[in-house]
Amino acid sequence: MSVLDVRDLRTHFFTRAGVVKAVDGVSFTLEKGEILGLVGESGSGKTVTGFSLLGLVDPPGRIVEGSIRLNGKELVGMSDRDLRKRRGREISMVFQDPIATLNPMLTIGQQMRMALEAHGRVGPRAAVTRSEELLAKVGIPSPRARLRSYPHEFSGGMRQRVAIAIALLHSPSVIVADEPTTALDVSIQAQILHTMRDLARETGTALIWISHDLAVVSSLATRLAVMYAGRVVEEGPTAAILRDPRHPYTAGLIASLPAMAEPGTALTQIPGTTPSLLSLPPGCPFAPRCTHATEACTSEPVLERHGTRGWACFHPVGGVPA
Amino acid sequence: MSFLSVDRVTRRFGPTLSLGEKIAARLGADVETRAVQAVNDVTLAVEKGRTLGLVGESGCGKSTLGRVIAGILAPSEGAVLLDGQPVMQGTNKVTTRVQTVFQDPFASLDPRMKVGEAVAEGPIAHGLTARAQAAEYVAGWFARVGLDPAWAERYPHQFSGGQRQRIAIARALAMQPDLLICDEPVASLDVSIQAQIINLFLDLRRDLGLTCVFISHDLSVVRHICDRMAVMYLGRIVEEGETGAVFDSPAHPYTRALLASVPELVLDGEELVRFAPIQGEVPSPYDPPAGCHYNPRCPFAQDRCRAEAPALRLLPNGRHAACHFAEELPAG
């Protein structure tokens, strides 16, 4: 059984200007210990997908349709009280900016103890032992002493490690990490990526890694889901997608990376801009920017499975025989 | 004489103390009186029509150096010369030949000013166009950067990030600069939009014969558009050279580690993504390590590195590197 099974998830925001369909039909499954990379540009719905999984979507947004099964339990429609019991224990989240998620007035030790006590009584000594153990695991030097430090006393990279340690406190089945290295320098990012890869392997926690950076995601994820305008347009094993993208958007995204071109030459660019989710054209949302679009693309393609992969396109590109 | 020469520039930031704080500090209270050496004795040269990439991690001083070259910040010591003429006199910028494009066009455009007016403001003030012809002048630049000239009547919030960056580029170019400083101009853009802006930049640079200083933490972008690159660490230049050569055979241990730490897609190789982290973190710029600033993280550090700061020197292969042992480092 998959730890997480998301089916046809739709999260819409009911604003004065109209209904913003931020997530509009997202499906994927996650196996134990698996790392899934959720890739997309701003406004593709990747963050709202992550928030939906934890039941953290606030009005005017709500999940209007779909199913999220975590360890077999349906989360959509679950009461706040029951959701709260699962958040942190079965599924937890790491955000982009740890300075915004850690309480500046409390020491790290106090915050970790609160997170532990949120799911049952923990003695002070046990709390310290568990917190220290996790800080050590995420690579914080002299963990016991650091429990008495405040968030501002840590560097950006170290703060993100603390946030990861807190997310791991209850050994959840799933961690959703939303752009956790975007605010960090490359050398620190590489350290965190290494730590995460080892942790996922060691603890069996499944990871959803949300990012706009293909190279970063691919360094961790065994599978990728590429999002565009609230939908997953392509999904499959990381290597297969990178070496042989089938959706024109995925292909365009990879081709537009500076690393893919000879220095100084023009980059392959995807024309146009990301569409407004308020006024999406009917049919394939990528069609207006797609060089392969035809009449057929005025109706919406669904994500069709082809072996271990899937794509939502009437005119897939590539298809090199393996 | 190079077109742009940065001559032993140092820029310090110290706290500006009020009288009360000065007295308190004198009496031994805990008042911050230390200064940060954001840019430390930097010498650089850029030839006409060339692009120099300035790379490094946050806090390395690359943006401060960019601002000193742009004439936004006065150097504490040293001078910046463009075509032999100083960019600044005292704390005043005395040329319009240097213009800047910043990272976040939302922060650098006045939200209550129509974008056309924002682009016209400088050229009118400096007599590059008459007020009566300003609209036409602006329309020309809008078309040049791929924007509909009719959009000059709009406000910044009506544009997407990529379009705003085009406006910022138009505003800088409307001053007809010879030198363009770009401070992370594509860092806040999505990948597909980033490619559009990079292509625009390549076209404009070629057509207008611009000389550029391109500041970025994104090494793949620097590799793509810069002729030469300089790597900074805690205020000092640790390596400078021709971009391709630096990527192929970095001479300084920090450059080596920095290049290796970036996840890079290798689509035709066995492994998909290659990267290796650097150990440790950048030390506090308030209290940089003695000798070579990189020595605590450097796997090759020796006693001499902890005692004596290496000068940026010319290596036999034409590279500049600030490392005592640049020639003796093991390969790979």
UniProtKB/TrEMBL annotation, chain A:
GO terms for molecular function: ATP binding; ATP hydrolysis activity. Gene3D superfamilies: P-loop containing nucleotide triphosphate hydrolases. It holds the Pfam family oligo_HPY. It is a peripheral membrane protein. Keywords: ATP-binding, Cell membrane, Membrane, Nucleotide-binding, Transport. It is found in: Cell inner membrane. GO terms for cellular component: plasma membrane. Its main location: membrane. The keyword Nucleotide-binding applies. It comes from the Bacteria. SMART domains: AAA. One of its GO terms (biological process) is peptide transport. Residues 4-254 form the ABC transporter domain. Belongs to the ABC transporter superfamily. This is ATP-binding cassette domain-containing protein.
From TrEMBL, chain B:
Residues 4-259 form the ABC transporter domain. GO terms for cellular component: plasma membrane. Pfam families: ABC_tran, oligo_HPY. GO terms for molecular function: ATP binding; ATP hydrolysis activity. GO terms for biological process: peptide transport; transmembrane transport. SMART domains: AAA. The keyword ATP-binding applies. Keywords: ATP-binding, Nucleotide-binding, Transport. It is found in: Cell inner membrane. InterPro entries: AAA+_ATPase (IPR003593), ABC_transp_ATP-bind (IPR050319), ABC_transporter-like_ATP-bd (IPR003439), ABC_transporter-like_CS (IPR017871), Oligopep_ABC_C (IPR013563), P-loop_NTPase (IPR027417). It is a peripheral membrane protein. Belongs to the ABC transporter superfamily. This is ATP-binding cassette domain-containing protein. It comes from Pseudooceanicola pacificus.
